[in-house]
Amino acid sequence: LCLFLRRKKFSSNNHMVEKNPAVMRDTPLPDLAAWVDYFRDADIPVMRRTVVELDKLRAVADRINARTLSGVILDDPLMTLRVMAYLEAHRQKRQTTDITTIERALVMIGVEPFFRDFENVPLIETQLAQCPKALLGVLKVIQRARHASGWARDWGLQRKDLDVDEITVAALLHDTPELLMWCFAPTLSLE
User: Fold this and answer.
1) Which of 27, 42, 102, 161 suits a disulfide with 70, CB 3.0-4.6 Å?
2) Which runs of consecutive H residues, i.e. helices, occur in 25-159?
3) Phi, psi of 172 (to 5 degrees)
4) What is this structure's pTM?
């Protein structure tokens, strides 16, 4: 995941470049580095529900804050991944610490710039429309990731951890490779 985040490419106007619009793999790549390169160039889809919720918030963007917006983003592990990859690609040289939570990432990005730069994102449901078994597979993994992040958050609160939000994001992103395989190599994932 770290290799993926550090190597995601963006143009100077903050929009991702070299997007690979839903090119599906049906044969395995030779090694991990090849998969990282493949996913790095991919335009990661998000859930339709996430886009609908973000569109509702876009209409009242001047009245919401990073916490409200992060609640919607954290419900979708792939949107969470997109935000973290975006932030890593726009990392300032003077930034000495990593931003590891969505709320902090949104504070760094800003609400209006977020809506501008995350306006047209691909949908999982559209990308996997021709492969309903893969759509079911990705939705099961998303549900598992949500469940795990909820448990991680609860345990973090119980243990009085210093940064429960960081633990939540880590648990949510734990299944990222499997999610990406379902999205971009559904035939291989079904085998």
Assistant:
1) 102
2) 32-40, 48-58, 66-73, 77-89, 102-109, 111-117, 124-127, 132-159
3) -65, -35
4) 0.85
Q: What radius of gyration, in Å, describes the C-alpha atoms of the chain?
A: 16
Terminal-to-terminal C-alpha distance of the chain: 23
**Max CA separation in the chain (angstroms):** 49
Task: Chunk the chain into consecutive blocks of 10 residues (it has 191) and report each block's average pLDDT, rounded to whole numbers.
Answer: 48 42 79 90 93 95 93 96 90 81 92 93 94 95 96 93 92 95 91 81
Specify the DSSP class assigned to residue 99.
-
11: helix, strand or coil: coil
Provide the token pair at 172.
């949510």
For residue 101, give both structure tokens: 């939570």
Instruction: Round to whole Å and give the CA distance between 69 and 53.
Output: 9
Contact 52, 79 (CB under 8 A): no
Which residue type, as a one-letter code, is found at position 104? R
Count CB atoms within 10 A of the CB of residue 152.
Answer: 20
Residues 6+ positions from 70 with CB-CB distance below 8 Å: 101, 102, 103, 106
CB atoms within 10 A of CB 101: 22
